[in-house]
Design brief:
355 residues, alpha/beta, 4-stranded parallel β-sheet, 11 helices, globular, binds glutamic acid
Length: 355
């Protein structure tokens, strides 16, 4: 009798455990990891080598190197590309944006993590910030040390990126980058150091928050339009308008403005000095470009502060757009998307204020 009771109690306990395990498994968010390459998937010749080949390790190898990841979320992984991000291009951007939108439409997908090289991470993050049509979290992550290095930062960064994407608090905040325990907004993202693990900053607005004990702790929300609130839609696009960036400096000539126009650019972003200023020679060529129907956005090569309207250059007189706080690399992304809708400088100016 006693043995039978004991058996049935054990049986009930096992059942209860099974039910709770299944519930926990069902309760875990599903996160897709889309891999594109970069140092995070890089392999060095030795574990201290500064030189290495980016984009070698596959997404499955990356995921397997992160202890405890399966406790945070149910992980599904896809390899979208495996390149150094210096080779990131419109084709991969469009493929990525379309795949992210497709996945996030599925009710059983809770968020996306994208592994990416750090060189152009700010451009891809901003492109997705403007083209993802969902409030579900999208987090980009990279690393500064290859997977074979001592104290490789990739596994911890992947863990925190997944934990951030899996958290309900992360909804509706725009595309983010999680690296070195910081949560950064795509609206003000820039790489500030060529080798340090703490390379990414939001230099104008400050980080959105931090990752602490595997949980996001937010301290700001962006007021800029993004993702579910963006007017840009790449669903039916197979290419993007060509936009070039031209730098200004002492003695800069009009050579590269003319080259961009002659090469068929639909838009030019200038990385000007100070508050988006350029040499007189460049400015004249920019005014000529506008007359030929090329959209011109004035940005600044300085990391913080605006390239503001109503300063030394009368933008309305020439039909230029001022980029405000959007750096030249992000300005190029926004102008490409703006040109899919209009090339009216006032309408483009509105976008540079709103996004
Ligand atoms: N240049 C490579 C890339 O951006 C490696 C740099 C990195 O990921 O940190 O993909």
């Amino acid at each position: 009798m006693k043995t039978r009771n004991l058996r049935s109690i054990c049986g009930m306990l096992i059942m209860a455990l099974l039910v709770s395990f299944t519930a926990a498994a069902q309760g875990k968010p599903t996160i897709y990891i889309l891999a594109t390459g970069g140092t995070i998937a890089g392999q060095g010749a030795t574990n201290i080598a500064a030189g290495y080949k980016a984009g070698v390790i596959t997404v499955d190898q990356l995921v397997n190197a992160v202890p405890g990841l399966d406790q945070v979320a149910t992980i599904k992984a896809e390899q979208v590309a495996n390149i150094g991000s210096q080779d990131m291009n419109d084709e991969v951007w469009l493929k990525l944006a379309k795949r992210v939108n497709e996945l996030l439409k599925q009710p059983d997908v809770d968020g996306i993590v994208i592994t990416h090289g750090t060189d152009t991470q700010e451009e891809t993050a901003y492109f997705l910030n403007l083209t993802v049509k969902s409030d579900k979290p999208v987090v980009l992550v990279g690393s500064m040390r290859p997977s074979t290095a001592i104290s490789a930062d990739g596994p911890r960064n992947i863990y925190t990126a997944v934990a951030c994407a899996a958290d309900k608090e992360s909804k509706g905040r725009g595309v983010m980058v999680v690296m070195d325990d910081k949560i950064l907004g795509a609206d003000d993202l820039t790489k500030t150091n060529t080798i340090y693990v703490e390379t990414f900053q939001n230099p104008n607005y400050g980080p959105l928050g931090i990752m602490y004990n595997g949980k996001p702790v937010y301290s700001r929300t962006t007021l800029k339009r993004h993702t579910y609130n963006s007017e840009f839609d790449v669903t039916n696009l197979t290419a993007l308008p060509r936009v070039e960036i031209v730098l200004s400096y002492s003695n800069a000539t009009d050579l590269f403005i003319h080259s961009a126009v002659n090469a068929g650019a639909k838009g030019i972003v200038t990385a000007g000095v100070g508050n988006g200023n350029v040499t007189t020679l460049m400015q004249n060529a920019m005014a000529e470009a506008v007359k030929k129907g090329v959209a011109v956005v004035r940005s600044s090569r300085i990391m913080t502060g605006p390239a503001a309207q109503w300063d030394e250059i009368d933008d309305d007189k020439y039909g230029f757009t001022a980029s405000w706080f959007i750096n030249p690399y992000r300005a190029r992304v926004l102008l490409m998307l703006a040109l899919t809708k209009t090339n009216d400088y006032k309408e483009i100016q509105r976008m540079f204020v709103e996004y």
